Amino acid sequence: MGTEAFDAGLAGVVVAETRLSEVEGEVGRLIIAGDDAEALAGVIPFEEVLRRLLAAAGAAPPSAAEIGAGLGRARVAAFAARGFLEAGSRAASGAAAVRASVATLEAEDGGSDPVGDAIRIAAAVGVAAAAFARRRGGGSPVAPDPSASHAADVLRAARGSSPSPEEAAGLDGYLVTVSDHGMNASTFTARVVASTGTDLVSAVVAAVGALKGPLHGGAPGPVLDMLEAVGTPDRARAWLEAELGAGRRIMGMGHRIYRARDPRAAILERLARSLRSAEVDERIAIARAVEREAEALLAARKPDRPLKANVEFFTAVLLDALGLHRDAFTAMFAAGRVAGWCAHVIEQRATGRLVRPASRYLGPMPATPSA
Ligand code: COA
Fold this sequence. Notes:
Helix content: 55-70%
Shape: globular
Strand content: under 5%
Low-confidence stretches: none
Mean pLDDT: 95
Oligomer: single chain
Bound molecules: coenzyme A
Number of helices: 16
Radius of gyration: 21 Å
Number of strands: 3
Order of helices and strands: EEEHHHHHHHHHHHHHHHH
């Protein structure tokens, strides 16, 4: 058996050098392409964060306006592409629908137009996510409007009705907030796949598969179920005690890197409040009560391990307030994170290095042949 260091979760293992984002877990800070996430969400649109990430990865993207026009054209193309929407129509979950639809896209020709490929795939993920949300809401997919902003058009297609400027800004801020986040599991997946020299479609399909898991991007739907089950702030403690007593984890709490509150929780809470709805404010009050009680109960159980609200907690509140079906939350996460995946693929390709770690063999050895 080898004596090399081993950590089953690769915690603390640096597997890439990146200019895309930095997660400072101890203080709860997220930097995306040189700026605090707080300073980006609600300030720059998704088109601009995609531009910044692609530029930081070493590509030469055009202006945000040109990226916006490209996303619009690519949404129309994805919507019309043969088999694209059909592939997602039978999926059991939003992430599965995105995975199936994106898998029908033509693989690009070896990365000769990385910016064009990124725009094409980012647009396609938004279209697939919106179509799934729309179907879950009981309607048929709505054709894209290439002249709208990416967030406004995805939200309109997801709901079948035009969003208010505040609602469009809410989804835009969400997509920017989740656009990149260090070496999370789906981003690592995208980089490993890209390191083999394969195409962006393959890397993104694999990344969506990783995002789908409940320990990564699959938690916001269950968070909403929890907030509804709790119902009123005064019932939070008893509900959470029963849940923990049954050996279940509290969804939306805890993080591999953050030991402080996930900074994205505050951003998404701010975006939800900016919708100025009494109903949403009431939901935020329940969420805050659940968060407070969960934090206290988890601190009592795990005094050495701070377990605080993560991004999924207020994702549930915000995306529900925007009128999106809960089954589509993870698909919307993909619609934002695809920006980071595409940029990481470009950055990884530039290293030219295959990611190929080692394992420690625990199985039997062949019997030594007798001399
Ligand atoms: N509820 C209850 N207990 C939790 C918990 C939660 N949400 N998160 C972690 N813990 C406990 C674990 O049971 C474990 O206890 P143990 O040592 O007695 O087994 C301890 O805290 C450490 O957890 P671990 O699974 O080693 O941490 P991790 O870094 O691997 O996991 C998460 C991070 C996010 C996977 C984990 O906190 C989790 O499952 N959270 C709920 C799902 C979620 O919100 N996912 C979205 C992530 S953005």
